[in-house]
C-alpha cells in the first residue's frame, strides 16, 4: 500500500477511535484533614509517588499537636498541594454560613493563617459543602443547589475568589457513610470513573477531579490498602495522575 494511502487510512481510523485512557488524567483530592486516616493518605501518596491536593480545615489542624504534625508532613511532600478548605467547615450549617458573605471570606482567610498559606499566586481552595469552580479559565456553580440558593450564594463565591483563591469543585466522589466507611468498592469506583469518561460527563475534557475524605482511610476501614489498590487500579487502566495546578488550562481556540 502506498505511503500516502497508509497515512490517510491511519487518519480515518484515528478519527473513528475514541480517546484512550492514557490521555485521561485523574486529580486526587482529599477533604477535611487532618483527621484519623490522614497519616495513611500521606503514607500512600509518598510510597506511590502520586500527586494530590489535600484540602485541610483550620480547626482540625488546631485540635492537637499530632494533627499539626500531619500538616507539617503534608507541606514537606513535594507531590502534595496543601489547599484551603475553610477554618470552620461552616460548622456543617451551610445555609447559615453562606448567609454572611464577609464571614465566609474571613473564615477562609483565617484558615490561610493556620495552614501557613499566602497569596499570590491564588491559593487552591474548596468551599465547605459546595461543588463550585472559580478558576482563571472556567467558572461553574453547584448544580445541586436550588436556583434561589445559587443566586443568593453567588456573591459569596465571587468574593472568596476575589480574595486570592482558586476554587475547585469535583467531578465524582468516593462516597462514605457517616462513620467514614467507604461505600463503593475499589473496583466499582474504577468502573464508575470509566463510565464517566466514556460518557463525557466530566467538567474538563479528559480530566476528572476525584473527591475523597481523609476519614475514609482509617485503619478500621483498611484505608491504606484500599487507597493503594485504587492507585494501582487506575494506573492499570492507563490513567495518569495530575497536579491540581495543571487542571485549569486555557481552552483550545
Amino acid at each position: 500500500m502506498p505511503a500516502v494511502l497508509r497515512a490517510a487510512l491511519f487518519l480515518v481510523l484515528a478519527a473513528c477511535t475514541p480517546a484512550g485512557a492514557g490521555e485521561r488524567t485523574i486529580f486526587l483530592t482529599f477533604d477535611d484533614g487532618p483527621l484519623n486516616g490522614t497519616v495513611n493518605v500521606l503514607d500512600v501518596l509518598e510510597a506511590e509517588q502520586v500527586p494530590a491536593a489535600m484540602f485541610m480545615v483550620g480547626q482540625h489542624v488546631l485540635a492537637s499537636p499530632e494533627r499539626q504534625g500531619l500538616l507539617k508532613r503534608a507541606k514537606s511532600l513535594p507531590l502534595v498541594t496543601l489547599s484551603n478548605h475553610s477554618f470552620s467547615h461552616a460548622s456543617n450549617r451551610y445555609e447559615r454560613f453562606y448567609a454572611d458573605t464577609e464571614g465566609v471570606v474571613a473564615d477562609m482567610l483565617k484558615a490561610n493563617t493556620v495552614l501557613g498559606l499566602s497569596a499570590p499566586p491564588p491559593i487552591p481552595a474548596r468551599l465547605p459543602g459546595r461543588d463550585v469552580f472559580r478558576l482563571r479559565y472556567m467558572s461553574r456553580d453547584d448544580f445541586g443547589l436550588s436556583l434561589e440558593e445559587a443566586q443568593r450564594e453567588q456573591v459569596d463565591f465571587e468574593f472568596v475568589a476575589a480574595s486570592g483563591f482558586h476554587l475547585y469543585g469535583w467531578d465524582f466522589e468516593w462516597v462514605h457513610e457517616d462513620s467514614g466507611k467507604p461505600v463503593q468498592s475499589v473496583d466499582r469506583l474504577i468502573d464508575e470513573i470509566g463510565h464517566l469518561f466514556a460518557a463525557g460527563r466530566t467538567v474538563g475534557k479528559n480530566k476528572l477531579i476525584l473527591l475523597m475524605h481523609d476519614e475514609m482511610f482509617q485503619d478500621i476501614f483498611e484505608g491504606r490498602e484500599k487507597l493503594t489498590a485504587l492507585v494501582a487500579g487506575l494506573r492499570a487502566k492507563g490513567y495518569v495522575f495530575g497536579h491540581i495546578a495543571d487542571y485549569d488550562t486555557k481552552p483550545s481556540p
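The beta strands are 25-33, 52-56, 80-84, 123-125, 133-134, 139-140, 165-167, 172-173, 207-213, 240-241. The mean pLDDT is 91.
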